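Aim 2 progress update. The chain analyzed this quarter is reproduced below.
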Amino acid sequence: MNAQSKMDTLKAALTDWTDFDVAAHALAQALGLMPEDTAMREYKAVYWSNNSFGNLLHSQLEQLVAEGILEKLEEQYRWCSTYRLPARSLIL
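Predicted C-alpha cells:
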C-alpha cells in the first residue's frame, strides 16, 4: 500500500459488528479486489446473490472465524480483539 492510499486494513474496517455484506466488501477492498472508493451498495448483487466471487468472499470470512481472527454473531462479523498471530515456530 502506498503512502497516498486511504484504504483501511480489515482489522480497522471490522472493529465493530458489521453486516456480512459490508464485511465481505471490506475484505474485497483489503485484498485489492474492489476499488477502495466504492460503497458496498454499489456491488450489492455480488454479496446478495449466488456467484463464485461472493461465495469466495463469504467462505474466506468463515475461514477467518474458524482461525479465531474474526468473531461472528448471526450474520455479523468483527475483528477478534484478543487475536494474536501464532509464534513463528508454530507457523513453520
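The chain has one domain: 10-91. The two ends are 26 Å apart (CA to CA). These observations will guide the mutagenesis experiments scheduled for the next reporting period.
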